[in-house]
Amino acid sequence: MSTSETTVVVHNPPRRRRRSKEQPPLMRIVLLGSSVSENSLVGNFILGRAAFDSEAPPDVVERVGGRLKDRDVMIINSPQLLQTNISDHQITHTVRECVHLSDPGPHVILLLLKHEPCSAEDQERVEKVLLSFSEQVYQHTMVLTTQETTETSDVLQNIIQKCANRHFSLQRSSSPDDLLQMFEDIVKMNDGRHMVCAEASQYYFIIFIFIYSSFTYNYCINKFR
């Protein structure tokens, strides 16, 4: 498989009975990381089942649905976007796939980072990926770490601060309900609105220009025929 391409795998959740008016709508979560095994661990933790394969190729973007308490959730898992060797073309292509699979937009961006020493270049790469989604990305983003430590690097702390200090440390005693509550807080802070993604905006702008150009061309042809 070419490293410049991204494979999309969609797992449709099983059919459930019709949702009542009191039940909250589907929550769409984009999980970003640099490790297939860690992304799978977190995705499976949220859904409470082995939904993601820890040995899947890193350039596969998966969408899996499930239910957590009284909330239907959809996780879009991209374990390659934060890798150090990813190209600008791969970033653009993979972000586009994540946006497509989370249409009309994600409610939460879950950023899976490590405590190990990070450089300013690492922070720039993370911020570049995030801003590829939207200028409002930090309003919807939280950081999750899986390593137990008593210290947090300055770079990691800077990123956490940009995410309004939203940070969840996944421990043995952690519960999916605790993480869900943080997701709910993000949704509530944004008044239930999903993130408007830059890739989606560009797509609709291009469609608009195409339609407008076609209309103008046909109008001129008919007028001067």
Automatic annotation (TrEMBL):
Domain of life: Eukaryota
Keywords: GTP-binding, Membrane, Nucleotide-binding, Transmembrane, Transmembrane helix
GO terms of molecular function: GTP binding
The keyword GTP-binding belongs to this UniProt entry's keyword annotation: yes
InterPro entries referenced in this protein's UniProt entry, alphabetically: G_AIG1, GIMA/IAN/Toc, P-loop_NTPase
Region (Disordered): 1-22
Name of the featured protein: GTPase IMAP family member 5-like
Family: Belongs to the TRAFAC class TrmE-Era-EngA-EngB-Septin-like GTPase superfamily. AIG1/Toc34/Toc159-like paraseptin GTPase family. IAN subfamily.
Coiled-coil region(s): none
Gene name linked to the record: LOC113040737
Occurrences of domain AIG1-type G (ranges): 28-168
Annotated organism of origin: Carassius auratus
Bilayer-crossing regions: 203-221
